[in-house]
Automatic annotation (TrEMBL):
Organism name: Jeongeupia chitinilytica
OmpR/PhoB-type domain segment(s): 124-218
Species lineage: Bacteria, Pseudomonadati, Pseudomonadota, Betaproteobacteria, Neisseriales
Protein name: DNA-binding response regulator
Gene Ontology molecular function: DNA binding
DNA-binding region of this protein: 124-218
Amino acid sequence: MRLLLAEDDDMIGRHLEAGLRDAGFSVDRATDGVAADLALQQQEYGLVLLDLGLPRADGLTVLRQLRQRGSATPVLILTARDAVSDRIAGLDAGADDYLVKPFDFDELLARIRAVQRRHAGRASPLFEHGALRLDLASHQVWLGEREVPLSAREYALLFELLQKPGTPLSRARLENRLYGWDEEVASNAVEVHIHALRRKLGAAWILNLRGVGYYVPKQPPEAA
Protein backbone atom coordinates (compact mmCIF):
# COMPACT_ATOMS: atom_id res chain seq x y z
CA MET A 1 0.00 0.00 0.00
CA ARG A 2 1.20 3.51 -0.81
CA LEU A 3 1.05 6.03 2.05
CA LEU A 4 1.43 9.78 2.30
CA LEU A 5 3.38 10.86 5.37
CA ALA A 6 2.85 14.57 6.12
CA GLU A 7 5.52 15.33 8.72
CA ASP A 8 7.80 18.38 8.90
CA ASP A 9 10.16 17.15 11.63
CA ASP A 10 13.06 15.63 9.69
CA MET A 11 14.22 13.20 12.36
CA ILE A 12 10.72 11.86 13.02
CA GLY A 13 9.95 11.80 9.29
CA ARG A 14 13.07 9.81 8.36
CA HIS A 15 12.48 7.36 11.23
CA LEU A 16 8.86 6.77 10.21
CA GLU A 17 9.71 6.45 6.52
CA ALA A 18 12.33 3.78 7.23
CA GLY A 19 10.06 1.82 9.57
CA LEU A 20 7.07 1.93 7.23
CA ARG A 21 9.15 0.79 4.28
CA ASP A 22 10.56 -2.07 6.36
CA ALA A 23 6.93 -2.99 7.12
CA GLY A 24 6.21 -3.27 3.38
CA PHE A 25 4.65 0.11 2.61
CA SER A 26 5.62 2.58 -0.11
CA VAL A 27 5.92 6.06 1.38
CA ASP A 28 5.78 9.58 -0.05
CA ARG A 29 6.64 12.36 2.39
CA ALA A 30 5.39 15.94 2.39
CA THR A 31 7.01 18.43 4.79
CA ASP A 32 4.33 21.12 4.73
CA GLY A 33 0.57 21.38 4.39
CA VAL A 34 0.54 22.90 0.92
CA ALA A 35 2.72 20.11 -0.46
CA ALA A 36 0.54 17.49 1.28
CA ASP A 37 -2.65 18.97 -0.18
CA LEU A 38 -1.12 19.07 -3.66
CA ALA A 39 0.02 15.44 -3.37
CA LEU A 40 -3.48 14.38 -2.32
CA GLN A 41 -4.98 16.12 -5.35
CA GLN A 42 -2.58 14.40 -7.75
CA GLN A 43 -2.16 10.93 -6.26
CA GLU A 44 -4.36 8.15 -4.89
CA TYR A 45 -3.17 6.91 -1.49
CA GLY A 46 -4.23 4.00 0.65
CA LEU A 47 -3.71 6.03 3.82
CA VAL A 48 -2.50 9.45 5.01
CA LEU A 49 -0.43 9.88 8.17
CA LEU A 50 -1.02 13.52 9.04
CA ASP A 51 0.78 15.78 11.50
CA LEU A 52 -1.33 18.72 12.67
CA GLY A 53 1.50 21.23 13.19
CA LEU A 54 2.57 21.54 9.56
CA PRO A 55 4.00 24.80 8.16
CA ARG A 56 2.25 26.80 5.40
CA ALA A 57 -1.08 25.02 6.04
CA ASP A 58 -1.86 23.07 9.20
CA GLY A 59 -3.02 19.47 9.24
CA LEU A 60 -6.65 20.28 10.02
CA THR A 61 -6.80 22.52 6.95
CA VAL A 62 -5.37 19.73 4.80
CA LEU A 63 -7.86 17.26 6.25
CA ARG A 64 -10.87 19.54 5.75
CA GLN A 65 -9.87 20.28 2.15
CA LEU A 66 -9.49 16.56 1.48
CA ARG A 67 -12.99 15.81 2.81
CA GLN A 68 -14.50 18.82 1.02
CA ARG A 69 -13.30 17.27 -2.26
CA GLY A 70 -15.32 14.19 -1.39
CA SER A 71 -12.31 11.95 -0.80
CA ALA A 72 -12.74 8.98 1.53
CA THR A 73 -8.98 8.36 1.77
CA PRO A 74 -8.28 7.11 5.32
CA VAL A 75 -6.46 9.62 7.54
CA LEU A 76 -4.59 8.82 10.74
CA ILE A 77 -3.50 11.93 12.65
CA LEU A 78 -0.05 11.77 14.30
CA THR A 79 0.52 14.76 16.57
CA ALA A 80 1.93 16.00 19.85
CA ARG A 81 -1.37 17.80 20.56
CA ASP A 82 -2.92 15.70 23.32
CA ALA A 83 -5.78 17.91 24.52
CA VAL A 84 -9.22 16.35 24.34
CA SER A 85 -10.43 19.35 22.34
CA ASP A 86 -7.73 18.71 19.70
CA ARG A 87 -8.72 15.04 19.42
CA ILE A 88 -12.37 15.98 19.03
CA ALA A 89 -11.53 18.58 16.38
CA GLY A 90 -9.43 16.12 14.40
CA LEU A 91 -11.98 13.32 14.49
CA ASP A 92 -14.87 15.66 13.71
CA ALA A 93 -12.93 17.06 10.74
CA GLY A 94 -12.91 13.58 9.23
CA ALA A 95 -9.90 11.72 10.65
CA ASP A 96 -10.25 7.96 11.06
CA ASP A 97 -7.95 7.76 14.07
CA TYR A 98 -5.79 9.97 16.27
CA LEU A 99 -2.42 8.97 17.77
CA VAL A 100 -0.46 11.20 20.15
CA LYS A 101 3.33 11.51 19.93
CA PRO A 102 5.48 9.94 21.23
CA PHE A 103 4.02 6.56 20.32
CA ASP A 104 5.25 3.01 19.93
CA PHE A 105 5.86 2.13 16.29
CA ASP A 106 4.14 -1.25 16.67
CA GLU A 107 1.02 0.56 17.89
CA LEU A 108 1.12 2.75 14.79
CA LEU A 109 1.24 -0.36 12.59
CA ALA A 110 -1.67 -1.88 14.52
CA ARG A 111 -3.74 1.28 14.06
CA ILE A 112 -2.95 1.32 10.33
CA ARG A 113 -4.20 -2.26 10.09
CA ALA A 114 -7.35 -1.36 12.06
CA VAL A 115 -8.09 1.55 9.70
CA GLN A 116 -7.52 -0.76 6.72
CA ARG A 117 -10.00 -3.28 8.11
CA ARG A 118 -12.67 -0.67 8.80
CA HIS A 119 -12.42 0.81 5.32
CA ALA A 120 -12.60 -2.67 3.79
CA GLY A 121 -15.67 -3.44 5.92
CA ARG A 122 -13.89 -6.27 7.71
CA ALA A 123 -13.65 -6.99 11.42
CA SER A 124 -11.18 -9.88 11.23
CA PRO A 125 -7.42 -9.42 10.84
CA LEU A 126 -7.58 -12.24 8.28
CA PHE A 127 -8.37 -11.19 4.70
CA GLU A 128 -9.99 -14.19 2.95
CA HIS A 129 -10.96 -14.91 -0.63
CA GLY A 130 -11.90 -18.53 -1.08
CA ALA A 131 -8.97 -20.70 -0.05
CA LEU A 132 -6.62 -17.70 -0.05
CA ARG A 133 -5.96 -16.03 3.32
CA LEU A 134 -3.83 -12.99 4.14
CA ASP A 135 -2.88 -12.08 7.71
CA LEU A 136 -2.73 -8.27 7.76
CA ALA A 137 -0.64 -8.25 10.94
CA SER A 138 2.09 -10.75 10.02
CA HIS A 139 1.85 -10.43 6.20
CA GLN A 140 1.66 -14.22 6.01
CA VAL A 141 -0.31 -15.82 3.18
CA TRP A 142 -1.92 -19.25 3.01
CA LEU A 143 -3.52 -21.12 0.15
CA GLY A 144 -5.63 -23.79 1.78
CA GLU A 145 -3.38 -25.30 4.46
CA ARG A 146 -0.18 -24.34 2.63
CA GLU A 147 1.72 -21.23 3.67
CA VAL A 148 2.92 -19.28 0.63
CA PRO A 149 6.10 -17.20 1.15
CA LEU A 150 5.86 -13.86 -0.65
CA SER A 151 8.22 -10.92 -0.90
CA ALA A 152 7.01 -7.58 0.47
CA ARG A 153 6.25 -6.32 -3.04
CA GLU A 154 4.44 -9.52 -4.04
CA TYR A 155 2.31 -9.29 -0.89
CA ALA A 156 1.49 -5.64 -1.58
CA LEU A 157 0.51 -6.44 -5.18
CA LEU A 158 -1.70 -9.35 -4.13
CA PHE A 159 -3.37 -7.18 -1.47
CA GLU A 160 -4.17 -4.49 -4.06
CA LEU A 161 -5.69 -7.04 -6.45
CA LEU A 162 -7.80 -8.55 -3.68
CA GLN A 163 -9.45 -5.24 -2.77
CA LYS A 164 -11.95 -5.67 -5.62
CA PRO A 165 -11.92 -9.19 -7.07
CA GLY A 166 -13.03 -9.24 -10.68
CA THR A 167 -11.96 -5.64 -11.31
CA PRO A 168 -8.88 -5.34 -13.57
CA LEU A 169 -6.13 -2.93 -12.53
CA SER A 170 -3.81 -1.59 -15.23
CA ARG A 171 -0.05 -1.87 -14.95
CA ALA A 172 0.18 1.92 -14.57
CA ARG A 173 -2.35 1.93 -11.74
CA LEU A 174 -0.58 -0.91 -9.95
CA GLU A 175 2.76 0.89 -10.29
CA ASN A 176 1.10 4.00 -8.92
CA ARG A 177 -0.15 2.14 -5.85
CA LEU A 178 3.04 0.20 -5.15
CA TYR A 179 5.89 2.64 -5.72
CA GLY A 180 6.70 5.98 -4.10
CA TRP A 181 8.11 9.15 -5.62
CA ASP A 182 11.76 8.26 -5.09
CA GLU A 183 11.62 4.60 -6.11
CA GLU A 184 13.02 3.39 -9.41
CA VAL A 185 10.44 1.35 -11.33
CA ALA A 186 11.64 -1.03 -14.04
CA SER A 187 9.42 -1.14 -17.14
CA ASN A 188 8.50 -4.79 -16.45
CA ALA A 189 8.39 -4.62 -12.64
CA VAL A 190 4.68 -5.42 -12.33
CA GLU A 191 4.91 -8.28 -14.84
CA VAL A 192 7.80 -9.80 -12.88
CA HIS A 193 5.80 -9.76 -9.64
CA ILE A 194 2.68 -11.09 -11.41
CA HIS A 195 4.74 -13.98 -12.82
CA ALA A 196 6.06 -14.78 -9.32
CA LEU A 197 2.54 -14.73 -7.82
CA ARG A 198 1.21 -17.03 -10.54
CA ARG A 199 4.09 -19.44 -9.97
CA LYS A 200 3.48 -19.52 -6.20
CA LEU A 201 -0.34 -19.49 -6.15
CA GLY A 202 -1.25 -20.98 -9.52
CA ALA A 203 -2.02 -19.22 -12.80
CA ALA A 204 -5.78 -19.31 -12.15
CA TRP A 205 -5.47 -16.85 -9.27
CA ILE A 206 -4.10 -13.91 -11.32
CA LEU A 207 -5.79 -13.30 -14.67
CA ASN A 208 -5.13 -10.76 -17.41
CA LEU A 209 -7.71 -8.92 -19.48
CA ARG A 210 -5.66 -7.99 -22.52
CA GLY A 211 -5.23 -4.26 -22.89
CA VAL A 212 -6.98 -3.56 -19.58
CA GLY A 213 -5.09 -5.09 -16.68
CA TYR A 214 -4.69 -7.84 -14.10
CA TYR A 215 -7.29 -9.12 -11.63
CA VAL A 216 -8.14 -11.82 -9.14
CA PRO A 217 -11.27 -13.69 -10.30
CA LYS A 218 -14.46 -12.85 -8.43
CA GLN A 219 -15.18 -16.55 -8.11
CA PRO A 220 -12.06 -17.88 -6.36
CA PRO A 221 -10.36 -20.96 -7.85
CA GLU A 222 -10.06 -24.17 -5.89
CA ALA A 223 -6.87 -24.56 -3.88
CA ALA A 224 -4.36 -26.88 -5.51
